[in-house]
Amino acid sequence: MHTVLIKNAKVVNEGSIQNCDVLIQNEEIVEIADSISAKSSDTQIIDAEGNYLFPGIIDDQVHFREPGLTHKATIETESKAAIAGGITSFIEMPNTIPQATTIELLDDKFEIAKKTSWANYSFMFGGTNDNLDEILKVDPKKVAALKIFLGSSTGNMLVDDPKVLENIFSKTNLLIAVHCEDEATIKSNLATHIKTFGEDIPMEYHPKIRSEEACYLSSSSAIALAKKTGARLHVFHLSTAKETALFDNKLPLGKKKITAEVCIHHLWFSDEDYKEKGTFIKWNPAVKTTSDREGLWKALLDDRIDVIATDHAPHTLEEKKNVYTKAPSGGPLVQHALIAMLENYHHGKISLEKIVEKMCHNPAILFQIKNRGFIKKGFKADLVLVDLHAPWTVNKSNILYKCGWSPFEGFTFKSRVTHTLVNGKVVYNNTKFAKTSNAQQLEFNR
């Protein structure tokens, strides 16, 4: 029996912080108490030394680029970076090459993850204008959700036929996760700016092109359709204050039919950062104004926004250095997501308990993930130990993403992840990884 005992930890869980010991046997937490003694000489003891113990972070939106785009990233490289950042479970998006829009192609991704992932994993199935028959075959106990792009997609994954969209919303029992930007509005805005600037549009116009109007038109339409059909809808990466008015906090998360997510970059950056960061903070939806950022924070803290995620979407430096119209949107974030939120804690913007709620508890509740997201007896021992007072600076030598860069390069964080456990095994310990991973496929209580 593999046994780990974590001593002298400040356990952050379910709205409180308590000084506890945590005993793990094999994959599960078996005891949480004020003081626990090792029951055998071969027990692995970790002295937390008063540092904070979180449930493993669950990231509900990543793009790990495999298969087909492995010059940017792989499931192995990015899940390893995630582990270093305290993310123990991820849900990956379907817009790879080929796209995961058939059961066979989805199963191929599960096989890759089974062999190479360092973090627990699941995938979303991709909706298109013509794959409803495949959607209806999806096993909801195995697959996290159905992903639909209502704007800004690749290949044939833009679902722009209203009849098809209503048919999907009406017939699937899967949670539907959506990227909401109105494509017609964006195309019109882009054409106007190309007339003025040509291909080399200054980056500060990105939030004018992928505008508040484009976001609100699409998200409000998706929500109206969900209410009409009774579908279970999750709106990814809100970027505007205006959109937050579409969501409420009247019900507990487990009873909500319509939920929302915000990403690290929309909470951290604003349009004032484009002059310094340029295309390195080019995301879809765009990073917008400081007032939008503050509106997102307000909605996050009052529970209209339910989840914090990364939308980790790496591209190579060469790709990012192109002019505006050629530079792809997206950036790497999994290694730095938790510590970025802890930086906001240090600045008094959010409590540790709220970080755990939005990054651990709520993704587990929202996606009905079995036995993860909490520090509880009988739950899987996915755990993260954090030192809140151990400054370090992000630079090329410690960036783990395959793309080799980060929008946080040069920034000094106050906190660091010291240990990450996945299914009861220490897989990351003070910058060093275990020889092998211990990841599992996520299961869903549906």
TrEMBL record:
<dbReference type="InterPro" id="IPR002195">
    <property type="entry name" value="Dihydroorotase_CS"/>
</dbReference>
<dbReference type="InterPro" id="IPR006680">
    <property type="entry name" value="Amidohydro-rel"/>
</dbReference>
<dbReference type="InterPro" id="IPR032466">
    <property type="entry name" value="Metal_Hydrolase"/>
</dbReference>
<protein>
    <submittedName>
        <fullName>Dihydroorotase</fullName>
    </submittedName>
</protein>
<feature type="domain" description="Amidohydrolase-related">
    <location>
        <begin position="52"/>
        <end position="427"/>
    </location>
</feature>
<dbReference type="Pfam" id="PF01979">
    <property type="entry name" value="Amidohydro_1"/>
</dbReference>
<dbReference type="GO" id="GO:0006145">
    <property type="term" value="P:purine nucleobase catabolic process"/>
</dbReference>
<keyword id="KW-0479">Metal-binding</keyword>
<dbReference type="InterPro" id="IPR011059">
    <property type="entry name" value="Metal-dep_hydrolase_composite"/>
</dbReference>
<comment type="function">
    <text>Catalyzes the reversible cyclization of carbamoyl aspartate to dihydroorotate.</text>
</comment>
<comment type="similarity">
    <text>Belongs to the metallo-dependent hydrolases superfamily. DHOase family. Class I DHOase subfamily.</text>
</comment>
<dbReference type="GO" id="GO:0004038">
    <property type="term" value="F:allantoinase activity"/>
</dbReference>
<dbReference type="InterPro" id="IPR050138">
    <property type="entry name" value="DHOase/Allantoinase_Hydrolase"/>
</dbReference>
<keyword id="KW-0378">Hydrolase</keyword>
<dbReference type="GO" id="GO:0005737">
    <property type="term" value="C:cytoplasm"/>
</dbReference>
<dbReference type="GO" id="GO:0046872">
    <property type="term" value="F:metal ion binding"/>
</dbReference>
